[in-house]
């Protein structure tokens, strides 16, 4: 049986500060008020009134950015977008093409090197590169992200599967693999053929 970890004083203080303003969710979702209804009455002043005033009653959702936001170190990012699995064979790919791609015998027609780019610039370059490769009817391309200096790799290497899983890029891609096991800093992408 696993022993339960005991939090230190500084960790307990941090956790208490984090959960101080958290309120439980309501059991049932409230129905939206009709547009012609009067705004709700202001809450009565009481011991928690100053805290209620700081929180906006309804904050409009921020529009999704072109480049997905990245997680800060030490925080887990809950991803709501699809991810392409690197090295896994998807449907629609015949045995010969898969073996040729995985073995590294299928040479890329073009290569995109993203070393030294920030996430936004790298995503823009990747997007344009894949759209252009598809319009030029290329079969295989290579994208080099580099290994990165972080424990889990660099930002570009971590985000690449999510960028490739976007709804505008996913239909272009048949498979994604590392050219060989020792090089996790680049991927080869097998593109779908354009239908005529």
Automatic annotation (TrEMBL):
Residues 112-192 form the Smr domain. Gene3D superfamilies: 3.30.1370.110. Residues 29-67 are annotated as: Disordered. Residues 29-48 have a biased composition (Low complexity). Pfam families: Smr. This is DNA mismatch repair protein. It comes from Gluconacetobacter dulcium.
């Amino acid at each position: 049986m696993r022993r339960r970890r005991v939090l230190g004083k500084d960790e307990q203080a941090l956790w208490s500060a984090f959960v101080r303003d958290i309120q439980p969710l309501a059991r049932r979702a409230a129905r939206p008020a009709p547009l012609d209804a009067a705004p709700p009455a202001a809450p009565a002043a009481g011991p928690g009134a100053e805290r209620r005033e700081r929180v906006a009653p309804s904050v409009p959702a921020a529009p999704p950015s072109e480049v997905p936001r990245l997680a800060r170190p030490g925080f887990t990012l809950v991803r709501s977008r699809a991810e392409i699995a690197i090295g896994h064979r998807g449907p629609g790919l015949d045995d010969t093409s898969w073996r040729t791609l995985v073995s590294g015998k299928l040479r890329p027609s073009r290569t995109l090197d993203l070393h030294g780019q920030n996430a936004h610039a790298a995503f823009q370059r990747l997007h344009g590169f894949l759209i252009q490769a598809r319009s030029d009817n290329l079969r295989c391309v290579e994208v080099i992200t580099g290994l990165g200096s972080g424990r889990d790799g660099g930002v570009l290497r971590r985000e690449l599967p999510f960028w490739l899983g976007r709804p505008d890029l996913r239909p272009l891609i048949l498979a994604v693999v590392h050219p060989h096991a020792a090089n996790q800093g680049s991927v080869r992408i097998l593109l779908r053929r354009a239908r005529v």
